[in-house]
Amino acid sequence: MAAAVAALAARCCRSRQHRFYLGRFSLRIRYHTPPPPSSSSSASAAHITMASFSRNLLRSAGKANALPAYSRNAIPSSSRFVSLTAEASRPAQEVPASKSEKFKVDLNEDSFKGYKFDVPKLEWETSKDELIHLYAEMVKMRRMEMAADQLYKQKLIRGFCHLAIGQEAVAVGMEAGMKPSDKLITAYRCHPFTVQKGGTIKSVIAELFGREAGISKGKGGSMHMFTPTFFGGNGIVGAQVPVGAGIAFAQQYLNTNDATFAMYGDGASNQGQVFEAYNMAKLWDLPCVFVCENNKYGMGTSAERSSMNTQYYTRGDVIPGIQVNAMDVLAVAAATKHASDFTLGGNGPLLMELVTYRYGGHSLSDPGTTYRTRDEIQTMRSSSDPIQGLKTRMLDWGIVEEAELKKIDKAAKEEVDQAVEEAKQSPQPKEETLWTDIYYPGTEPDWMRGRDRTEIHRYR
């Protein structure tokens, strides 16, 4: 191994740029976790001295400053994330008897962290009705995703399928904080967003089946679902972010007084197009909130292994940012409303990082246990579950009784089960529909065959 480093050093010392890359290579070795002790002392010694070997080789050539001057110690560590507790908020005043009367709730003091930005007040005005609604919506989203899991394993759903079990507070909380006319675009973990932005559970399940009753008429599948205010569901990692900036540009151009929330994951955060979108959005002060949904893993790679700076809300440079405890649906709602108000106030874009956690794998083809421990997953389930957290608070505050919560759970299960059965009854799309919905009506090129329904007979 040392011989390999020596050979690399001999090639790399020809220029300053090459010496920089050798320095980075040495840093990677230095931060690499060494293997367990081996019976071969020579092999162990070679591994331990690889970094120092290359460093000394450079120094002997009079290039002691070739190594970069930064280290992970200069970057905020992952331990400085917002708190991920799901049940630490408390009423700021006596809970009223009326279900519709508003009252204020104090949020956990570690719900937000700001970067060049004044974070929201640690409170959210709510009502008993809203809290019960938020709980019911999260329960339904989880039931829907759990049903999709089982249907996939029964081979009734084909292709890719990415579930959001554990991340329910993100979609439900964002919808609670957004204006109805605000737009949203995200990646492939999109089922709950589809429902929250106007779809139905039946239309989502039918789309997963590839049936006519699907939200995209059976043509989109798991990753491509849309509503009038929801622009998908996109299968290309990070590609939706510049599209989101484009939607915000249209809103600014048309003076609609609406915002766009362009979402992506921690795995997509290192994409060049994400930073290009940042630049254009800030250059034109677009009403765009860039939302990094950080569930700690991009496929099977942890954030710490893929990103030098895992504090994604600080990556906007001149764009301010906020980090949010996204296991607390109330914190998500408060941050989302604050973000919308900020960007619509003429302040330009904002970067919002929602720190959450997925219980399952990246997709249903990933068990999710080869790159993290079962204990880690169970710890998050038991200590930070967004549904259980809100349930505990409502019981403690006397908002509902256990019996009422059981009724909500039962109703959610029945709604999902009925949606599944109705989706199964929906027919498969006809072959002719391959030629429809290709262009927006009225924009089809004159030379394109099959551009309207009167020409579909040619396909037959």
From TrEMBL:
<keyword id="KW-0560">Oxidoreductase</keyword>
<dbReference type="InterPro" id="IPR017597">
    <property type="entry name" value="Pyrv_DH_E1_asu_subgrp-y"/>
</dbReference>
<protein>
    <recommendedName>
        <fullName>Pyruvate dehydrogenase E1 component subunit alpha</fullName>
        <ecNumber>1.2.4.1</ecNumber>
    </recommendedName>
</protein>
<dbReference type="GO" id="GO:0004739">
    <property type="term" value="F:pyruvate dehydrogenase (acetyl-transferring) activity"/>
</dbReference>
<comment type="function">
    <text>The pyruvate dehydrogenase complex catalyzes the overall conversion of pyruvate to acetyl-CoA and CO(2).</text>
</comment>
<keyword id="KW-0670">Pyruvate</keyword>
<dbReference type="InterPro" id="IPR050642">
    <property type="entry name" value="PDH_E1_Alpha_Subunit"/>
</dbReference>
<dbReference type="GO" id="GO:0006086">
    <property type="term" value="P:pyruvate decarboxylation to acetyl-CoA"/>
</dbReference>
<dbReference type="Pfam" id="PF00676">
    <property type="entry name" value="E1_dh"/>
</dbReference>
<feature type="domain" description="Dehydrogenase E1 component">
    <location>
        <begin position="137"/>
        <end position="430"/>
    </location>
</feature>
<dbReference type="InterPro" id="IPR029061">
    <property type="entry name" value="THDP-binding"/>
</dbReference>
<keyword id="KW-0786">Thiamine pyrophosphate</keyword>
<dbReference type="InterPro" id="IPR001017">
    <property type="entry name" value="DH_E1"/>
</dbReference>
